[in-house]
Amino acid sequence: MNLNANFSEFLLECGTDEAGRGCLAGPVTAAAVILPKRFNNSLLNDSKLLSAKHRNSLKPIIESEAKAFAFHHIWPEEIDKINILNASILAMHKSIEQLNPIPEFIIVDGNKFKPFNNIPFETIIKGDQKYLSIAAASVLAKTYRDAYMDKIHAEYPMYNWKQNKGYPTKEHRDAIRKYGPSPYHRMSFRLLPEQLKLEL
């Protein structure tokens, strides 16, 4: 399934997306990508629909062919302070801010966004399965975040972040139960289902 190249008529249209929103540990990471009009790649799709091997093979292609790309991590302390939705949008803003040239139009995966520097934008549900630049941003956000989770896995191997990337798998929750949370965990998240039961 080939995705659409552009949503708007603007030449410099940027797609943005985030990864790691539902994780219990690690940053939420966003990326922003401006692709050339002629860009095409039949493999490129929403990063969640691609294998790690395909994501990693697409990353250098996107980076070498994009007119501009950037990514940004928002760390757990910040997520705990401003909440995950605001952190996701902030990560997107910080990614877009780094782009050179500056985009003339922004397309965003999902339905929530805040205006950025008066640049017109459109939110698109399942945008990462419809538009190449959002799919490209989803691949970069995911690969940069995964690489970071692999790195901190070495520090705290008991949570097996290499495998679960911080998502709430049974194994991850069992490790939190056994070892308690790490400095990389988001303390504002329900790390364990039983957290809601107060022992009186």
Automatic annotation (TrEMBL):
Keyword list, A-Z: Cytoplasm, Endonuclease, Hydrolase, Manganese, Metal-binding, Nuclease
Stretches assigned to the RNase H type-2 domain: 11-200
Enzyme class: hydrolase
Cofactor note: Manganese or magnesium. Binds 1 divalent metal ion per monomer in the absence of substrate. May bind a second metal ion after substrate binding.
One function term, GO molecular function aspect: RNA-DNA hybrid ribonuclease activity
Major site of localization recorded for this protein: cytoplasm
Entries under Gene3D superfamilies matching the protein: Ribonuclease H-like superfamily/Ribonuclease H
EC number: 3.1.26.4
Cofactor (UniProt): Mg(2+); Mn(2+)
Record flagged with keyword Cell membrane: no
Reactions this protein catalyses: Endonucleolytic cleavage to 5'-phosphomonoester
Binding site for a divalent metal cation: 17-18, 109
One Pfam entry name: RNase_HII
Location(s) in or outside the cell: Cytoplasm
Membership in a protein family: Belongs to the RNase HII family.
Name recorded for this polypeptide: Ribonuclease HII
Protein encoded by which gene: rnhB
